[in-house]
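Could you show me just one protein sequence together with its fold in token form as a worked example?
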Amino acid sequence: MSFPIRTQLPLLAAILCLTTPASAVEKYILIDGSSTVYPILKVAAEDFLKNEDGKVVMELDFSGTSAGFRKFIAGEIDIANASRPISREEIAAAKKWGVSYIEIPLAFDALTIAVNPKNHWADDIKVSELKKMWERAAEGTPTKWSEIRAGWPDRPIQLHGAGKDSGTYDYFSEVVAGSAEGLRSDYAASEDDDVLIRGIEANPDALGFIPFAYFSKEGEKLKALAVQWDFNAKSNSPVGGAPVTLPSVDAVLEGNYLPFTRPLFLYVSVTSLSAKPHLKDFLQHFLIHADDCIDQVDYLSLPKISYARSIADLEAKNTGTRFSGVPEFRLSVSDLLNRKPK
């Protein structure tokens, strides 16, 4: 079982195609993309490979959702992990290059606003306050806690968040700034969530946004802020009546943790599915045991019927996406189940 450093995947794909017999290439399953989805696939890969006796080699990496889609469309990987739906631009690029894909809804995440546990002044935060911290208009000027809410200390906020190749960046930016590239750039950015966590844990004035699975594994080393959705940055209008809610699996299930509840996906290459029998074996094994794998990393698994439908989509090669290429902030589990790819 191999989990390589990031720079190896494109090189490995090229070497395999040019120098390795087809029968040997078939044993490799190449996966890249979202760091948010990575923990789920790591558990799934380890479980699948236990009984394969070296017949399959899985190369699992995370370079971010956007980078993963670029590699996927270039034919460098078999599966793209994604923490957002495929975008309009990516849909168009896939069509241009003749890349057909099967979209597999995987789980729901509660994107978490995390601070250092030594932060004793902030227990909750509004989306409008996050906008003031993170929007591009704040670029170049250190934002102080006291500028966000009266009574908070007169000290600069140290911001940490996903880099631009991350689907987490795209989603957070759409929520707080109203566009996919609306955030200030003068913050500590990384595609590696563990790097963000270390930054937040090291500074009492730090605040960052990270996937719930990465937050929950840290225990008392991090503190989550409850969130209130009081402002819709897409429509530039107030939102009324939203509860102040801490991130949790139950909050996601009950539909209370908006707008930071988001679906997670796999995108599977139809070409790879036809050429690599082990890829289908892995996906079927994973989808049968998906809820167990997902529960281990503290995301919200979907109802079993969803995974059964995904197995049927693989069998029938039902291609396309359930989305129009733009993020949605009120998507429920039932909404996702009722959509068909097209």
Q: What stands out?
A: The two ends are 35 Å apart (CA to CA).
